[in-house]
Protein backbone atom coordinates (compact mmCIF):
# COMPACT_ATOMS: atom_id res chain seq x y z
CA UNK A 1 0.00 0.00 0.00
CA UNK A 2 1.52 3.32 -1.07
CA UNK A 3 1.84 5.97 1.58
CA UNK A 4 0.40 9.30 0.43
CA UNK A 5 1.88 12.64 1.31
CA UNK A 6 -0.25 15.38 2.82
CA UNK A 7 0.56 18.97 1.96
CA UNK A 8 -0.74 21.75 4.18
CA UNK A 9 0.03 25.43 3.75
CA UNK A 10 1.51 27.02 6.84
CA UNK A 11 2.90 30.53 6.72
CA UNK A 12 5.95 30.77 8.98
CA UNK A 13 7.74 34.11 9.31
CA UNK A 14 11.02 35.03 10.97
CA UNK A 15 11.31 38.33 12.79
CA UNK A 16 14.19 39.89 14.66
CA UNK A 17 16.85 42.57 14.63
CA UNK A 18 19.46 42.78 11.92
CA UNK A 19 22.32 40.28 12.24
CA UNK A 20 20.64 37.98 14.76
CA UNK A 21 20.95 35.09 12.32
CA UNK A 22 17.56 34.69 10.64
CA UNK A 23 19.06 33.90 7.24
CA UNK A 24 21.62 31.55 8.78
CA UNK A 25 18.83 29.70 10.57
CA UNK A 26 16.96 29.16 7.29
CA UNK A 27 20.18 28.23 5.46
CA UNK A 28 20.96 25.60 8.13
CA UNK A 29 17.45 24.18 8.01
CA UNK A 30 17.02 24.09 4.24
CA UNK A 31 20.53 23.23 3.08
CA UNK A 32 22.09 21.91 6.31
CA UNK A 33 25.04 24.25 5.94
CA UNK A 34 26.41 27.34 7.57
CA UNK A 35 27.97 30.34 5.92
CA UNK A 36 30.03 32.98 7.71
CA UNK A 37 28.81 35.71 5.38
CA UNK A 38 25.94 37.69 6.82
CA UNK A 39 25.02 39.89 3.86
CA UNK A 40 21.68 38.07 3.43
CA UNK A 41 20.25 39.08 6.85
CA UNK A 42 18.87 42.55 6.17
CA UNK A 43 15.18 42.07 6.90
CA UNK A 44 15.64 43.10 10.54
CA UNK A 45 16.81 46.55 9.52
CA UNK A 46 14.66 49.39 10.82
CA UNK A 47 14.19 50.72 7.30
CA UNK A 48 12.02 47.65 6.61
CA UNK A 49 9.80 48.10 9.71
CA UNK A 50 7.06 49.82 7.71
CA UNK A 51 6.72 46.75 5.47
CA UNK A 52 6.82 44.23 8.30
CA UNK A 53 3.06 44.05 8.84
CA UNK A 54 2.58 42.99 5.23
CA UNK A 55 5.25 40.33 5.75
CA UNK A 56 3.65 38.70 8.77
CA UNK A 57 -0.01 39.23 7.80
CA UNK A 58 -1.94 35.94 8.14
CA UNK A 59 1.10 34.10 9.51
CA UNK A 60 0.36 30.83 11.28
CA UNK A 61 3.66 30.83 13.14
CA UNK A 62 6.34 33.41 13.87
CA UNK A 63 9.88 32.70 14.92
CA UNK A 64 11.14 35.73 16.81
CA UNK A 65 14.91 35.57 16.72
CA UNK A 66 17.34 37.27 19.07
CA UNK A 67 21.07 36.90 19.59
CA UNK A 68 21.71 35.51 23.10
CA UNK A 69 24.95 37.50 23.20
CA UNK A 70 23.18 40.83 22.54
CA UNK A 71 20.62 42.08 25.08
CA UNK A 72 19.42 44.79 22.69
CA UNK A 73 18.25 42.14 20.22
CA UNK A 74 16.17 40.52 22.98
CA UNK A 75 14.69 43.90 23.87
CA UNK A 76 13.59 44.19 20.24
CA UNK A 77 12.00 40.72 20.51
CA UNK A 78 9.48 42.27 22.92
CA UNK A 79 8.57 44.73 20.17
CA UNK A 80 7.98 41.96 17.62
CA UNK A 81 5.93 39.97 20.13
CA UNK A 82 3.71 42.98 20.86
CA UNK A 83 3.23 43.62 17.15
CA UNK A 84 2.11 40.04 16.61
CA UNK A 85 -0.19 39.99 19.63
CA UNK A 86 -1.92 43.14 18.43
CA UNK A 87 -2.10 42.38 14.72
CA UNK A 88 -2.05 38.58 14.36
CA UNK A 89 -3.72 37.10 17.43
CA UNK A 90 -3.96 33.60 15.91
CA UNK A 91 -0.25 33.40 15.14
CA UNK A 92 1.78 31.03 17.35
CA UNK A 93 5.02 32.55 18.59
CA UNK A 94 8.32 30.74 18.99
CA UNK A 95 11.27 32.54 20.57
CA UNK A 96 14.61 31.59 19.09
CA UNK A 97 17.81 32.54 20.85
CA UNK A 98 20.53 32.27 18.21
CA UNK A 99 24.31 31.85 18.36
CA UNK A 100 24.24 29.30 21.18
CA UNK A 101 27.65 28.02 20.06
CA UNK A 102 29.21 31.33 21.17
CA UNK A 103 27.85 30.89 24.69
CA UNK A 104 28.76 27.20 24.79
CA UNK A 105 32.36 28.23 24.11
CA UNK A 106 32.32 31.22 26.51
CA UNK A 107 29.47 31.48 29.03
CA UNK A 108 30.46 35.05 29.91
CA UNK A 109 29.40 36.15 26.40
CA UNK A 110 25.74 35.53 27.30
CA UNK A 111 23.79 38.76 27.72
CA UNK A 112 20.26 37.34 27.63
CA UNK A 113 19.26 35.48 30.77
CA UNK A 114 17.55 32.26 29.70
CA UNK A 115 15.11 32.56 32.64
CA UNK A 116 13.93 35.94 31.33
CA UNK A 117 13.51 34.47 27.85
CA UNK A 118 11.55 31.51 29.25
CA UNK A 119 9.28 33.93 31.13
CA UNK A 120 8.57 35.86 27.93
CA UNK A 121 7.80 32.60 26.09
CA UNK A 122 5.48 31.57 28.91
CA UNK A 123 3.70 34.95 28.81
CA UNK A 124 3.27 34.55 25.03
CA UNK A 125 2.01 30.97 25.45
CA UNK A 126 4.85 30.03 23.14
CA UNK A 127 8.00 27.98 23.12
CA UNK A 128 11.65 28.91 23.34
CA UNK A 129 14.63 27.36 21.62
CA UNK A 130 18.29 28.26 21.86
CA UNK A 131 19.87 27.36 18.54
CA UNK A 132 23.16 27.39 16.74
CA UNK A 133 23.10 27.70 12.98
CA UNK A 134 26.83 27.03 13.02
CA UNK A 135 26.53 23.59 14.68
CA UNK A 136 22.89 22.92 13.78
CA UNK A 137 21.93 22.46 17.43
CA UNK A 138 18.14 22.61 17.95
CA UNK A 139 17.39 23.98 14.46
CA UNK A 140 15.49 20.90 13.26
CA UNK A 141 13.82 20.62 16.66
CA UNK A 142 12.42 24.15 16.29
CA UNK A 143 10.89 23.52 12.88
CA UNK A 144 9.57 20.08 13.87
CA UNK A 145 7.84 21.67 16.87
CA UNK A 146 6.17 24.21 14.60
CA UNK A 147 4.98 21.43 12.28
CA UNK A 148 3.72 19.37 15.21
CA UNK A 149 1.85 22.30 16.77
CA UNK A 150 0.33 23.40 13.48
CA UNK A 151 -0.94 19.95 12.56
CA UNK A 152 -2.34 19.51 16.06
CA UNK A 153 -4.22 22.81 15.73
CA UNK A 154 -5.93 21.73 12.53
CA UNK A 155 -8.92 19.58 13.41
CA UNK A 156 -9.93 18.47 9.91
CA UNK A 157 -6.68 16.90 8.73
CA UNK A 158 -6.89 13.51 10.35
CA UNK A 159 -3.90 11.29 11.13
CA UNK A 160 -0.51 12.40 9.85
CA UNK A 161 2.81 10.67 9.58
CA UNK A 162 4.83 10.59 12.79
CA UNK A 163 7.74 12.36 11.14
CA UNK A 164 6.12 15.75 10.54
CA UNK A 165 8.47 18.27 9.02
CA UNK A 166 8.40 21.61 7.31
CA UNK A 167 9.88 21.99 3.87
CA UNK A 168 10.66 25.49 2.71
CA UNK A 169 10.93 26.44 -0.93
CA UNK A 170 11.19 29.59 -2.96
CA UNK A 171 7.95 30.53 -4.71
CA UNK A 172 8.61 32.66 -7.77
CA UNK A 173 5.07 34.03 -8.04
CA UNK A 174 4.81 37.80 -7.47
CA UNK A 175 2.44 37.43 -4.51
CA UNK A 176 4.39 34.98 -2.35
CA UNK A 177 8.05 34.97 -1.48
CA UNK A 178 8.25 31.78 0.58
CA UNK A 179 5.86 29.01 1.43
CA UNK A 180 6.09 26.18 3.87
CA UNK A 181 4.66 22.73 3.37
CA UNK A 182 4.22 19.98 5.92
CA UNK A 183 4.93 16.49 4.71
TrEMBL record:
**Source organism superkingdom:** Eukaryota
SMART domains annotated for this entry? RAB, RAS, RHO
Q: Which GO terms describe its molecular function?
A: GTP binding; GTPase activity
Question: Which InterPro entries does the UniProt record give?
Answer: P-loop_NTPase, Small_GTPase
Name the keywords, alphabetized: Nucleotide-binding
Q: Name one Pfam family in it.
A: Ras
Instruction: Give the family, as the similarity comment puts it.
Output: Belongs to the small GTPase superfamily. Rab family.
Q: Which PANTHER family match?
A: PTHR47978
| The protein's name | Ras-related protein Rab-24
Q: Which organism is it from?
A: Potamilus streckersoni
